[in-house]
Amino acid sequence: MTNGSARRMSVKAVCMTVAVFTAVAVTAGAAWAAFTDNMYPTPYANLACVDEGSTPNGYLSCQTDNATLTYYMDSGGSNMLETVDRNRVNYVMEHVFEPTDLSVSLDSTPSFSGSAETDIVYEESGIGVPSGASGVTFCNDAADHLRCDQQYIRILGGGHYANGLICHETGHAVGLLHGDQASPVTSRRDERLGCMEDPVSDGEVLQDNNIDNINGTY
């Protein structure tokens, strides 16, 4: 727009400009609701999203590839989730993550290749789970340096599939970080991080800070 056309801006255009400014202001206000940014990337967690087995390996946090979040629970073989574990995953996804701006759905016909892979695959497995931990999330197919097309969540059997841990690992799968990787840095035990607190208790869910960061990203 030239200076001349700017001076001749119509009343309608001025109103549109005010509307756009208001929308931007509202968005910015929402971002301020979070006390810390614990959404990957931050200054303290900014390595590129890569696949498991890469250097550094795929245990780094990544964002999921878009707001449509599909998930599948391994239903056969040694990594199969028992009924009680499946019920807990479904509960967390439906009651904790679905109320965010993510559009969450169970994928009954999962895809493990191509351009529309199932976003999260839950397994009951100890493969790759660090010593002393009960679960881990890793990227299986990085879409780019920021996002992962498919992520695997592995949680130990024997009662480790608890709601708080499912929420924690799913939080990592959409990009949420621990407190010591947030900006500004906070304690890994900060109660305001909800289920992203480490260690996490069974009853933890997403708190406002996590929800604000998810909604601000997706």
Question: Can you give the mean pLDDT?
Answer: 87
Helicity range:
25-40%
Shape: globular
Order of helices and strands: HHEEHEEEEHH
Number of helices: 5
Class by SSE composition: alpha/beta
Oligomeric state of the chains present here: single chain
- Give a short account of the largest sheet: 6 strands, mixed
List low-confidence stretches. Answer: 1-31
Assess the beta-strand content as a share of residues: 15-25%
Rg of Cα set:
20 Å
Total strands: 6
Distance between the termini: 31 Å
Summarize the structure.
The chain is an alpha/beta fold and about 220 residues long.
Question: What does this protein look like?
Answer:
The protein is α/β, with parallel strands linked by helices and 218 residues long. It has 5 helices and 6 strands. Strands 1, 2, 3, 4, 5 and 6 form a 6-stranded mixed sheet that branches. The longest helix has 22 residues, at 11-32. Residues 1-31 have low confidence and may be disordered.
Describe this protein with a few key phrases.
6-stranded mixed sheet; 5 helices; disordered N terminus; alpha/beta; globular; 218 residues
What is this structure's SSE topology?
Blueprint: H1 3-7, H2 11-32, E1 63-64, E2 68-73, H3 83-97, E3 103-106, E4 120-124, E5 135-142, E6 147-155, H4 163-173, H5 208-217
